[in-house]
Amino acid sequence: MTIGIVGSGRMGQDLFYSLMEYDCQVILVSRNQDQIDKITKRIQKKQRRDPQLMGGKTPIITDKLTDLADCDIMIETVIEDLNVKQEIFQRLEGIAKHTCIFATNTSSLDVTDVFFYGKAKERCLGLHYFYPLKVISAAEVNAGPDTSEETVKEMVKFLSMTGRKPLVLRGESRLVLSKLLISLAAYAYKLSLEGELTLKELDQITKQVLLFGIFEMVDSTGFPIISQCLINLPDHLHSNLFKPLLLQVSDFMKQGKDGRRGEGFLSSEDSGKRAAAYIVNREECYEAYGIRFLSFLLNEIARYMEDPLLDNKQFQETIEEVLGVSASLKSLYQELKEETILETLMTEYKKTLDPLFLPADFKVYRKL
Prior knowledge:
Protein name: 3-hydroxyacyl-CoA dehydrogenase family protein
InterPro entries: 3-OHacyl-CoA_DH_NAD-bd (IPR006176), NAD(P)-bd_dom_sf (IPR036291)
GO molecular function: NAD+ binding; oxidoreductase activity
Largest sheet: 8 strands, mixed
Shape: globular
Family: Belongs to the 3-hydroxyacyl-CoA dehydrogenase family.
Helix content: 40-55%
Radius of gyration: 22 Å
């Protein structure tokens, strides 16, 4: 099997190095000559150190898309720009063999839009990997309305062969992990605007449930990607929630900050201006915010699990791995207790009249 990767950014390179360990020919296309030289030297060093590492198939690094002509699968990993992605796939269709599968590693754009001009839509889909690749084995397979079942099966087979756990998503469930992550970030930012806790304190609270702090995640992902998620992913329930975070991220970007170079939320927080308000019992405050965050998280997940097209068991396993939750979803639900979740959500709803906080049907957790 021959796999082509277009784009030598962080994801493109990580994916390239990951696939080298398996029995397939890997070709990386980059328009950056410095990157090509750097990656070539690294590959040569790996080969000298361990000649058997790549199974006798020397990876190819090139600046020519035409070198992908014999690929069985082409994976695009360039910037989250719809026009750029559309143009790349139009060019790739003119190069590829008639059986090639086209995949976009977008985290915020709908596959219908990315492949809008495609002539072989039945062989097109989204393929969303997660950072860090060495740790998270889950990958979303986002099937478009025209994607054939044969294409989905081939992609699932490829992912399984290369050590990944595929989560197949269709319809409204596409990019569900991106939607969930950005919703958690937007909600945590909403909580910060109440002024009782700093961003760093809220990060510590989220770490009680997740493997990472929410604002750590936002900063490490980078504001360009976060911005695109906030623009492209909201539905009618989430649009109001996303606006404050989008305004702040946009303001940071106007200042030339991207989040990933130590210029993010956590480094920009003015501890003097954002000193937490005087609270008699900080332990109770932390607990209250923790309950609100976990209730929101469980409600969001339960709402997605109502989708009949979603494999709930697969989704649960993927959620637990990607978020690195401290316990299973069912255990978190049982520990917090449904009455507490309902009371917390209804308190938020009565205060905001935002239907986002209306409780979902929690029977999905009882069925797990």
